[in-house]
Each structure stands twice: as structure tokens, then as C-alpha cells.
Design a protein that fits this description.
Layout lengths: L2 H12 L38 H4 L6 H4 L7 E2 L5 E4 L5 E2 L8 E4 L4 E4 L6 E4 L2 E11 L5 E2 L6 E8 L5 E11 L4 H6 L7 H7 L11 E3 L6 H8 L2 E8 L7 E8 L3 E4 H11 L15 H5 L9 H8 L1
This protein binds zinc ion (ZN).
The site of zinc ion has 5 residues, from strand 7.
Protein name: carbonic anhydrase
Keywords: Lyase, Metal-binding, Signal, Zinc
Catalytic activity: hydrogencarbonate + H(+) = CO2 + H2O
Length: 304
């Protein structure tokens, strides 16, 4: 699981920044304190969009167009293993001093490496690096696109990656009675606090500091649900595989006015749903390298 990612980091370390290796500018990029916020060279539309990510750097991003375990996917039965979250070891301390919130151009991201957070998965200890947002959601919730999706990125010391995905849905101003009956239908205090600073990072390359973040609200909510687990990939270049995904069945809520403010900054940053896990990459199929008529899986689907 870790070999592809390890190869990527080895490769990234061997290429000088002067070559403009765009794979080094991913959501996982680590940099020194005080360094400027890097603006991503990949995008989501036109010639820098996901159909051509592999051509932005053919040496690094090949899996974007050839990988057969790519993310995101349509989260339907058979694609994931459902695991109750109540027994999962997930601890994230509150960011009592706030956290850095930055605009990478490709997403807006809360940097958590100073704060930390632990996620234990199959005996491996992962540490929270950052969380960022996609608009609209990248995974589909049983065929349904959600307004946004949060990705919490964890890594091990060996650079193995686990991501918790959390859908974000919208909520109208709930009445007191509705909140009493369904407390989780209220807007997420965590998200509303983070996004109250979105206006400060409207321009790619800028950063700010959030107000103190209470992470326990999020952890408690995640533990009340289940995780849909599967092994997939980064949803951004270099599309490395072996990423341990846990998509929560619990959704966070956001008020419409906050959503609109975030949408106007983030724009569109969602990779299209990939083929079923283990099946040919859709770009390879589209180029004729793997004709659908030769695919047993495709025939099976079409016969349904
Ligand atoms: Zn993401």
C-alpha cells in the first residue's frame, strides 16, 4: 500500500523545485514555517483539469489516467466495507490557539500539523496533517452529489495516507423545536467558525488564522456513525494509490449563507467520479486503449 506513495515522495525529493514539479504542490505538501502559501498548478477545468492531469507531468501523474483504484468513486454497496466508528480510535485535540487557514488555489485548507490528532487504522498510527474542502462533493453518496466534502488527511511516519471524508449538506435556519428534536441538524459550529474567516483568504496564496477550533464536536459526531472504507487514491495529482479511505455516514451541516460565501471563494474543485475499483481507468477506455466491448465488467453493467 505504501510503495507507490513512497516512490512518489522519493521522486519528489529527487527533483529540484526549479523544474516546477507540480506533484510537489499537492495538498500533502509540507513546508517550512513562514514560507509562502503555494498555489497549485493543477486545476479543475480546461487544460489543467482532471482529464489532462497526467499530461501536466507525465513522469509523476501517470496514475491519474492509468490507475485502476482511483478516487473519488460512487459510494454504492459492494465498493466499500462498512465499519462502526464507535470503536475506532480517533482523537483530535482542540486548536485552542486557532489554526492556519490557507487558500491553495485548488482548495482551502486548515493546517493541523501543529495541533495533531490520531487515527488508528488496522494497527497503524496516523497523524492528522490538514483538512480541506471540495465543492461539490467528490464522492457520490449512493449516486447523490453533496454540496461539499471535507477531507481530513492523516499520514504515518512511513508516509502512508489515510483520509476521512465527510459530506457537508445544507440546513435552513432550524427552529428551536427542530434543534431540540434533531440536534445534529444544526449548522456545524466547527465549520461555521472556520468559514467565518473565508473572506480573509479570498485570493489564492493567502492565509489567515482561525478562531479557536473545538474539534470534539466533530469527533463525537463521526463516532456516532460508521465509516465506509476502501483503498483508493489521492483525488489530486499525482493520484497516488494505496490511500485508505474512510467516508463517514455522518454529514456535517452548513448554513446557506456560509455555503454561498465558501462557494464564491472555492469555485469548482471536484474530480469526476472514477470507474469501479479494480476496473480500467476511464481515460484509458476513452482513448481506445481498453475498448468497453472487451470488458467483462462493462458488459455485465450494460446488461443490467
Ligand atoms: Zn481532497
Amino acid at each position: 500500500m505504501s510503495s507507490a506513495i513512497s516512490r512518489f515522495f522519493l521522486l519528489a525529493a529527487s527533483v529540484t523545485p526549479a523544474l516546477g514539479f507540480c506533484g510537489a504542490r499537492t495538498h500533502l505538501d509540507r513546508r517550512a514555517e513562514g514560507e509562502e502559501v503555494p498555489v497549485s498548478t493543477f486545476g479543475y477545468t480546461g487544460t489543467v483539469g482532471p482529464l489532462l492531469w497526467s499530461q501536466l507531468d507525465t513522469a509523476a501523474n501517470g496514475l491519474c489516467s492509468t490507475g485502476s483504484n482511483q478516487s473519488p468513486i460512487n459510494m454504492v454497496e459492494g465498493q466499500f466495507k462498512l465499519v462502526s466508528a464507535c470503536d475506532v480510535e480517533l482523537d483530535i485535540p482542540d486548536a485552542t490557539e486557532g489554526a492556519t487557514f490557507e487558500n491553495l488555489g485548488s482548495t482551502v485548507e486548515v493546517v493541523m500539523k501543529e495541533v495533531g490528532g490520531t487515527f488508528v487504522l488496522e494497527g497503524k498510527n496516523y497523524t492528522l496533517e490538514q483538512f480541506h474542502f471540495h465543492h461539490p462533493s467528490e464522492h457520490l453518496d449512493d449516486g447523490v452529489s453533496m454540496p461539499m466534502e471535507m477531507h481530513m488527511v492523516f499520514t504515518t511516519e512511513a508516509e502512508e495516507i489515510a483520509v476521512i471524508g465527510v459530506y457537508v449538506d445544507l440546513v435552513d435556519s432550524p427552529t428551536v423545536l427542530q434543534l431540540h428534536l434533531h440536534p445534529r441538524s444544526a449548522p456545524s459550529t466547527l465549520l461555521e467558525t472556520i468559514f467565518s474567516s473565508i473572506g480573509d483568504i479570498a485570493t489564492p496564496g493567502t492565509s489567515t488564522k482561525t478562531k479557536p477550533l473545538v474539534m470534539s464536536e466533530l469527533v463525537t459526531q463521526l463516532k456516532a456513525g460508521s465509516f465506509q472504507r476502501y483503498s483508493g487514491s489521492l483525488t489530486t495529482p499525482p493520484c497516488s494509490e494505496g490511500v485508505a479511505w474512510s467516508v463517514s455516514t455522518e454529514k456535517l451541516r452548513l448554513s446557506k449563507s456560509t455555503y454561498q460565501a465558501v462557494r464564491d471563494v472555492v469555485g469548482f474543485n471536484s474530480r469526476y467520479p472514477q470507474n469501479n475499483l479494480g476496473e480500467q481507468n476511464l481515460l484509458a477506455m476513452a482513448s481506445g486503449a481498453a475498448a468497453p466491448s472487451n470488458s467483462t465488467a462493462a458488459r455485465r453493467r450494460w446488461a443490467m
